[in-house]
Amino acid sequence: MIDKNDSHQDTFEEGLNVRREVLGAAHVDASLGATSEFSRPIQELVTEYCWGIVWTSDGLPRKTRSLINIAMLTALNRSHELAVHVRGALNNGATDGEIQEVLLQTAIYVGVPAALESFRIADRVVKEHHNAE
C-alpha cells in the first residue's frame, strides 16, 4: 500500500528538482526562502502539482511548456511570472527567435499592448541571460 504522505513528499521533491532546473536554484531558493507561514501552502501546491506532476510529465518537452507559458502569461498580463518563464525558456533551450515568434503570435491573438509589454520584459531578460553566459 502506498503511504499518501510519502507519495506527496516524493512528488514535491521531484517538483522542487524540476523547478530548480528550469528556473534556476537561486530563484527558487529565494522564492521559498521568502515564504511566510501564510503563503507556504501555495508554494507547496505549486511545487508539488505544477512542477512535480505537470512539468514532470513526458507529454510535452520542457521547451514547449516554456513557450506555452510565455504565451499564456502574456495573455494574462503577468509580467513578473513572464520574466521568470522567459529565463526558464532560455534554460530549456528556447532560442531568442522562438521567444520572439511566440510573442508575435500573442500580438495577433491577445493584443498588441500585451505583446509590447512582454517584448520589453523578454528583451531585458534575454540581454541579462546572454550577459551572464
Protein architecture, described:
It is a single chain. The protein is mainly α. It is globular. It has helices at about 5-25, 25-35, 40-55, 60-75, 80-90, 95-110, 110-130. The longest helix is centred in the last third of the chain and has 21 residues, at about 110-130. Helix 1 (about 5-25) crosses helix 2 (about 25-35), helix 1 crosses helix 3 (about 40-55) and helix 6 runs antiparallel to helix 7. It is built from 7 helices and no strands.
Rg calc: 16 Å
Percent strand equals under 5%
In round numbers, the mean pLDDT is 94
Give the helix level as a range of percent.
over 70%
Number of strands: 0
The poorly predicted ranges are: none
Major sheet description: none
Q: Strand-and-helix sequence, N→C? A: HHHHHHH
Number of discrete helical segments: 7
Q: How far apart lie the N and C ends?
A: 47 Å
Oligomeric category: single chain
Structural class: mainly alpha
Principal-axis shape equals globular
